[in-house]
Amino acid sequence: MLRIENLTAEVDGKPILKGVTLEVPDGEVHAIMGPNGAGKSTLSYALSGREGYEITGGTAVLNGVDLLEMEPEERAAAGLFLAFQYPVELPGVGNANFLRTALNAIRRTRGEAEVDAMQFLKLARARMKELSMPEDMLKRGVNVGFSGGEKKRNEILQMALLQPRIAILDETDSGLDIDALKIVADGVNAMRGPGFSALVITHYQRLLNHIVPDRVHVLADGRILTSGGPELAHRLEAEGYAGVLEEAA
Amino acid sequence: MNIVSPPGNAAAFLHRYAGLSERLPGANNPAVRALRDAAADTLMAGGLPSRRVEAWRYTDLSPMLRAEFREALTAVDEAVALPAMRAERRAVFVDGRFRADLSQLDGLVAGALAEVIETVAGRLNSVASASQPMVMLNTLLFEDGLVLEVPEGADAGRLELLSIASGETAATLHPRHLIRLGRGARLVLLETALSPAGAHHLHNPVFEIEVAEDAKITHVRVQREAETAWHLAHLGVRVAEGGTYDGFVLNAGGRISRSETHLALLGPNATAHLNGAQLVADGQLADTTTSLDHASPNCASRQTVKTVLAGRSRGVFQGKILVRREAQKTDGYQMNQALLLSEEAEIDSKPQLEIYADDVKCSHGATAGALDPDVLFYLRSRGIPAIEARAIMVRAFLQEAVEIVEDEPAREALEEAVAAWWAQHGEAA
Q: What is the CATH number of domain A2-248?
């Protein structure tokens, strides 16, 4: 499980997270919703160790391991996965090669045998079929020339291959049409169960119709202001943030 | 000629010439003698270029000019470790001398310059210009080289040109290679220059390459000499109508390395590729200088040069493209990019387009930058350790240039050189 306590972080000297406390038990999917500028992306970057996101206080522990002391690659090996809001393009790096390098890097640190090119292809093809991804996406440069939807599906493919303990999905629904949204949601739902939890960051209720969360948290001005069941997302959709935030204040 | 006390920075080379002139190949040939003496006169009068000479502004030769060199050993039976062959045929030069015993040239019209000098004397400095400093130095002291003819319509396949400096002495090697492709002929020339770590030799090869109508040469140079050596190459190339020079130069060794190509497209529908990569580590300078002359209509030229710099290092790219008035419908593209892995690295980039024709398509660009932190974070967030992530990014940066090379063994040789360089310098970079 992921346990975040009183986490504070700043960017360029400006406090963004002002004491986030949150617990995602094993096997659960939680959603984080909130208005623009609430600190949603900052939370995902602070947890994954991006440079420039300075932790000034608090703790974040994944299955008993302190995440905040680790390098980004160590956090990934410990089971943290971030699905990027804007996945980067890597011209000159084949997607298959990249995915296998990542998978083997993580397998190495877990003391598991590396997979060779043939084993990897078999593994990747099966996952890609589930995500309705054309096979030529393995041959192309990572995210190069991919549509917005293809990039997000490529993120979910990475998640499916790397088998994290917790996945943070940072506005994975942005820029997706309804079909792509369903594919992405199916990809996440397929992994639900013991040993996997997820933190779904989104602006909109729409994604949560397909990935039904166990809990919904509202992040505003760097803090979790209120939490509830899936019905909270429906209320936010109907009433907007203003009403809910006012009530919580 | 009077060489009592040669002045200037070329004194050491002029001394050597004075001592060797009676023993160098062609000593009894008036034409060869005249070329060498003319080079000596010019060097005595003007010396080798300082940074005040525009074409040498970024590449300071003075450390090389202060170095002490000796004559190469010429023992023919000395054992040399050769790398595995990358082609069916190979011409091997050890310390600048052709080694028939190590070479395999069956089926080729090829020989050692020292042996055929009388028959090719008239071709010397006919493609490479005697006024170019590195051609001049080579003219003064060349001892051997590869003379290769690919007859009309013939496909010579792939030939490896292997140049090894044994490193026993700080020798100066000045091979002169004369390569001529007849009409419609084909050749892949895969050149590798090697020397053991710590070697202090100067390798100053000059190529004179003639590509006849509709002929095509792929010329890939993989320069992996010791980081303490000096490498100053000059390539003169002439391409006739419909011909192609498909060139790639990798500068990955030498304290100072410069590969300078002067190419002229002399007939319509000719093509030139002047691609390359430079891998420069702490204490090194690598320079790719090209001068491309579009002298005829409907020709195409392509140039992508990538430089990776680590530590306190310097990179130079100078790319001149001249499009003459008669060279209408020229299609030219030039791109040079530098990746600086250290804040102490420096790249000097000088694209130079001179266009006198009015109906041409010419584009060029230059970039310099560090590794993109967003990409680095993306890779690390997938569990890839920082050092490996940087290696992936450096390879990807070079890939765009390397993947242009169609010949597979040549591309493999380049990829191997990149991997070896990274293995040695990646940790520090």
A: 3.40.50.300
